[in-house]
Automatic annotation (TrEMBL):
Protein name: MurR/RpiR family transcriptional regulator
Species of origin: Microvirga splendida
Entry-linked Pfam families: HTH_6, SIS
Keywords annotated in UniProt: DNA-binding, Transcription, Transcription regulation
Oxidoreductase as UniProt keyword: no
Gene3D superfamilies noted in UniProt: Glucose-6-phosphate isomerase like protein, domain 1, Winged helix-like DNA-binding domain superfamily/Winged helix DNA-binding domain
InterPro entries documented for this protein: Homeodomain-like_sf (IPR009057), HTH_RpiR (IPR000281), RpiR-like (IPR047640), RpiR-like_SIS (IPR035472), SIS_dom (IPR001347), SIS_dom_sf (IPR046348), WH-like_DNA-bd_sf (IPR036388)
SIS domain boundaries: 136-276
HTH rpiR-type domain residues: 16-92
Record keyword Transcription regulation present: yes
PANTHER family noted in UniProt: GLUCOKINASE (PTHR30514), HTH-TYPE TRANSCRIPTIONAL REGULATOR HEXR-RELATED (PTHR30514:SF1)
Length: 320
């Protein structure tokens, strides 16, 4: 009978940073242990608070495997592992990024941050409900008007981006960030309209109030927000963006990226619903921007633009 080599103790002393020790020992771990390690490194705050059953379920292993992993990384058990996680989180670098630990090299920072967002996107994809996305796309496709509301720097940008995309699809659309204009727009909506509210935090009182007004006037409310928020509670359709909270930003990179992806998904589905005519229209828009846009890669267009300006100046001068 072949004896297996003992697993290495990955934590050299009780005072070491457990997150760094886990990260350093990834290469020597089994596939199951690597899944547990990745889960902890991706969201140590959650791992510190979760029970053994939740940890096992998310990592796809058994509960005893979680306990064995804790001992493998030099802890007395799961409770000791959580205490060391708490100590590691208290001393700092997760306030820059939850996947970065003090002393990480540039290569490690790149690997950890890219790996973190990849893991977040995978988890988020599995949470999505295609039927809700389909319903939202169908209603927007048939709407008389779609008003995009976003309050705050990120939400406002996303609302404007969505308005620009819907406009290209031939949908009558607006984007509002001002609280008063949101109320005015909401008050003019009807049962034929859609109010698309964007807010990761989902608690801005003025936005929630404007959404309530739109709903009172019969509009269908679609919310791009977290599941358990006041905005989600009032929406007819919730497109959830439940991702780990950022250490420093109210709307971190994870939230920003998944919101952009949801908008992209919606626009593609709506475009397909609008059929070949819309696709031909988009092709024409692309060709016009390519051949007539002054920011094209074709340098001759830049000269063409300057010639237009110069000729225009000469024509104005000749009038005097």
């Amino acid at each position: 009978m072949i004896k297996k080599a003992p697993l290495p103790n990955l934590s050299p002393d009780p005072g070491s940073d457990i997150l760094r020790s886990i990260s350093a020992g990834l290469a020597s771990m089994s596939a199951g242990q690597q899944r547990i390690a990745a889960m902890i490194l991706e969201n140590p705050h959650w791992a510190m608070q979760a029970n053994v059953e939740d940890l096992a379920l998310r990592a796809g292993v058994s509960a005893p495997t979680i306990v064995r992993f804790a001992r493998t990384v030099g802890c007395d058990g799961l409770r000791d592992l959580k205490l060391r996680l708490a100590a590691a989180l208290a001393v700092g670098a997760p306030y820059l990024h939850r996947s970065v630990t003090p002393g990480d090299s540039t290569a490690e920072v790149v690997r950890n941050i890219v790996g973190s967002i990849t893991s977040v996107l995978s988890d988020w994809q599995h949470q999505l409900i295609p039927a809700d996305i389909e319903q939202a796309a169908e209603i927007m496709h048939r709407a008389r008007r779609v008003d995009c509301f976003g309050t705050g720097a990120t939400s406002n940008f996303l609302a404007m981006d969505m308005q620009a995309r819907l406009f290209r699809l031939g949908i009558t659309t607006n984007a509002f960030s001002d609280a008063h204009l949101q109320l005015v727009a909401a008050a003019t909506q009807t049962e034929e309209d859609v109010l698309f509210a964007i807010s990761y935090v989902g608690r801005m009182p003025t936005l929630v109030e404007a959404v309530a007004v739109g709903k009172e006037h019969g509009a269908t409310v679609i919310a791009l927000t977290q599941t358990n928020t006041p905005l989600a509670a009032i929406a007819d359709i919730v497109l959830s963006i439940d991702v780990p909270h950022d250490a420093t930003m109210r709307v971190g990179t994870d939230a920003y990226v998944v919101q952009l992806l949801m908008i992209e998904i919606l626009m593609v589905i709506i475009g397909l619903k609008r059929g070949p005519t819309m696709i031909n229209s988009l092709r024409e828009i692309h060709d016009i921007l390519l051949t007539r846009g002054v920011d094209s890669d074709d340098p001759s267009l830049l000269h063409w633009g300057w010639n237009q300006v110069l000729h225009s100046g000469k024509d104005e001068a000749s009038e005097f």
